[in-house]
Amino acid sequence: MRKTTYLLPVLVLAVAGLLSSVFIVDERENALVLQFGRVVSVQEEPGLAFKIPLIQEVVRYDDRILSRDIDPLEITPLDDRRLVVDAFARYRIVDVNQFRQAVGVGGIPAAESRLDSILRSETREILGSVSSNDILSVDRAALMLRIRNGAIEQAEALGLEIVDVRLKRTDLPAENLDATFGRMRAEREREATDERARGNEAAQRIRAQADRTVVELVSDANRQAEIIRGEADARRNNIFATAFSQDAEFFEFYRSLTAYQRALQGENSTFVMAPDSEFFNYLKSAEGSGGGISATDAARIAVPEAPAADTGTGAGN
Q1: I want to staple 251 with a disulfide (CB 3.0 to 4.6 A). Which of 157, 164, 187, 244 is the partner?
Q2: What is the DSSP string of 82-135?
């Protein structure tokens, strides 16, 4: 009974000591074994590891790639156009022993604070050496690579490896936005005015060309009409000349009747002319100077609306 009383506490202490001397290293982390604050071993392989209970302690650090957002930073490029840059970095702990010596008990928060200072300094230096157009163009990938390469050496002193640096946003300061938008609006209005002016110029040019084409077409049509009219008049005159050459007296008689028909329109027609006018030679009596037909016979021939009962012809040579 007395042996069991002493043996049970010893067994419990032994089991507790064994359990406290064993620790597990996860595949996602590295571990440091510290003895009175001094690093005595580094455990980078996953699995079981041992330490001295009560004397040694284990400090664990993440072995994965970590992300760090950098606070928005205001920079001034070469063209003095201030920009607010929002960036982030990806890093990992590659040397846990050096990392512990560099940051001490502060751990990852202390390391990230120092990493922020490094990245902010490199960002100001690199982006301040180029123009704002370079920052906002496709060349920004090369600028991010320069920032990363410039911060790598300083980060190695902390036991860190900077995997990548990216610019998330690049904006203008709030106080400059209104002025910038005003300039952009004025520029777009100027471009719109230029486009409208060019459109009006093109419209006037097309309209003038169309008017010229209309004038040319009308002029050509009139020319062709005059040619056709002249040819028709020539043919008509030729026909008249042929008729005149066959019987001059009948031709003159026919022309006079045509003139009477055109002049004597309607039921009442009044003419004021000299009594000896030759216009009415064929309306005089057969004994007149024209030796023509009587007025009644001429009216029957010249005016087709006369009654059929008055039909008759007068003789004349």
Answers
A1: 244
A2: -EEEEEEEEEEES-HHHHHHHHGGGHHHHHHHHHHHHHHHHHHHHHTTS-HHHH
